[in-house]
Amino acid sequence: MIGKALSRRHLLGLGVGAGAATALAACGSAGPGSAGGSSAATYWSLSGPPGEPARKAAIDRFNAANPDTKIAPLFFQNDAFKQKIKTSIGAGEGPTLVWGWGGGTLRSYVKAGQVDDLTDWFTQNPAIKDKLFPTSFAAGTVDGKIYGMPHESVQPILLYWNKNVFEQVGAEPPQSWGDIMALVPKFNAAGIAPFALGGQSRWTNMMWLELLLDRAAGPEVFDQVFAGEPNAWSHPAVLEMLNRVKQLVDAKGFIQGFSSIAADTHADQALLHTGRAAMMVHGSWSYGIQATQGGDFVKNGGLGYMNFPPVEGGKGDPTNQVGNPGHYLSIASNATPEAKEVGKKFLATLVDDKEPGEWIKTGNVPIIKGSDAQFAGQPNGEFLKFVYDLSINAKVFAQSWDQALSPTAAETLLDNIAKLFQGQVSPQQWVDNMNAVIGK
Amino acid sequence: MTTLAPPAVRVSESRATRAGGRSGALIWLTLPALLMFTAFGIVPLLGVLALSFTTWDKIGPIQPSGLTSWTAVLRDPDLPHALWVTFLIMGLSWLVQTPLSILIGVFLAAHKRYRGFLAVLYFVPLLFSSAAIAIMYKSLLDPNFGVGSGPGMGLLRQDWLGDSTLAVGVLVFIVSWQYIPFHSLIYQGAVRAIPTTMYEASLIDGAGRVRQFFSITLPQLRYTIVTSSTLMVVGSLTLFDLIYVLTAGGPGDATLTLALDMYKTGFQADLMGPASAIAVILVLVGLIMSQLLRRLGGRGDESQQEGM
């Protein structure tokens, strides 16, 4: 009886979806945009702030400026979007403008011939390319060609700390990996967890690996994994990174019970602003969450934030960033030529003068150069400036691993990371398991 | 004798025609249900079976790939682990639910006003959706902000869902909490169907309440136990929503059941072929388990519609 109806529906969905996809692949006719007239383009993206209001505003601007063309947007919830967009694109029924995270998923679209190469278009429109953060293009590029235009906002991963508990314990923010390890017993002795972590979500743990590997060896090691080179995870820096994580877990560096804390409920954020944990490694979006859910914590200057410190003897440039170097917009290959034209015209709207304000308004740092001129007077202006400088000065802004890799490899990665933190796999087993899915 | 013969023949004749007519009509009556079942049960099932012999990442074309998905799934160490977790949760929740459901069912079967009130109260957990239950327990059991953080509740401050062993136990507890109302309802109905004359006779023989329970009630509930167990077993096999929200298969892979493995393989890792193979395995295990239980219980569960 338990959950039976759900699972049956589940199976049905699977079967029906498969059937529909085959049928559509067989006839392969109706492409995107064909329903809404020749001069209309469709656009699918995520619902809710900050994306939906900012994007609606841009589309309104575009439609007002171009009365004979039209963009019809559709907004979906995050998880629904992820499922819907893949199946629709696979069936040739996707939108003209494909919103995405770049990386592995974009690569699958490219492999299936579903999105257009925009390299020439960017060469013809250098003004647009020049307005965007140069480091953002990597995750929208596949085999040297640009398939996704970076847009929206940049979100690097930072080290946050609670100034109140640091004062209480008499500690200084860490300037190196050694400092971090030295702070762990200090906070544990005071009954405060050194680090908050929402370990059930798995990508939260992954941020530690990304930063530690980059600080130890730079972005080259993961680049080799991304390029599908056999045994790329066998680089000695990987074992070094895994052992560091293991040391931190063994030293009780993370809050007790971290593996049952899910990040989507923001329980990990609450640990920091309630002072139960002293530090946290998290995306730049955490600032907004702390500010809205932490009461007076941010307003009273309780939240400290900094770039993740270097590790001793590390070869990686400590100004390198990891996280979300942007979101990406692609043009569907099987859209009508007219719809594609409208779509490309719309891309220019995404770097116009009004665009940065829409993102700053929601507490995000726009991906557009010079947008820092508008930070002054914003309630979180100082933080925005910090993130802007960090992102624009980064030599490399690497994409989160789970988004850079294919969904297949990403799932294995996340599983193995969870098991590493749980002590269910050793660092060496981790390397072997991950080598087995390189290029998949 | 001869005078009696003709009516007897006539009766049997008319019975035969009536029966034949009725079964003819019955076939027509089952047609809509059969069509629905074929369209929404059999066809997708065949679709999944076909999909398990292909490779598909949901974006590219579906390509036949022979047995690759099957060998990948059968060689994957996750499969025996997921099977083990599935059977562990199935076995433990059967062990917890069955005795408690029988006791509550027997208790509620008596026609007393306060028990009628209790029956309503006991039934409440079944009215919640699994997702709501999971979210509620997840908040309650939170190691830092849950019930354990309340004053004087230090004992309850465990890493309930972050410890491999505890997480399985907690899961079994919550599943039982949710479904014992349903099963005790079945038992309540079954106990009320036991003829009271049996109890009256045993009373004359001097049997006490305990003796009555073991010598009359329990044997009379035999078929009900089989039915209820079948539902539990099949339900545990497809248990998904509760675990997905509560632990997402974690910590590590401690609560990764077959249904969850299927979801993660298909919808998170985009491996539709192997996910379909896992789905087929799930269906097969379910069929085998329910057939086994059917054998065990003879024809006692024939009135139940469940069984797949």
Can you lay out the helices and strands and say which pair or pack?
The complex is a heterodimer of chains A (440) and B (308).
Chain A: H1 4-27, E1 40-46, H2 51-65, E2 70-76, H3 78-90, E3 97-100, H4 103-111, H5 119-124, H6 126-131, E4 141-142, E5 145-146, E6 149-151, E7 153-162, H7 163-169, H8 177-189, E8 193-196, H9 203-217, H10 220-226, H11 236-250, H12 267-273, E9 277-283, H13 286-293, E10 303-306, E11 321-324, E12 327-331, H14 337-349, H15 355-361, E13 365-366, H16 381-393, E14 397-399, H17 401-404, H18 407-422, H19 427-435
Parallel strand pairs in A: 1-2, 1-3, 8-9, 11-14
Antiparallel strand pairs in A: 3-12, 4-5, 6-12, 7-9, 7-10, 7-11, 7-13
Helix pairs in contact in A: 9-11, 11-19, 18-19
Chain B: H1 5-51, E1 54-55, E2 63-64, H2 68-75, H3 78-109, H4 113-127, H5 130-140, H6 164-192, H7 196-204, H8 209-220, H9 222-237, H10 241-246, H11 258-268, H12 272-296
Antiparallel strand pairs in B: 1-2
Helix pairs in contact in B: 1-12, 2-12, 3-6, 3-9, 3-11, 4-6, 9-12, 11-12
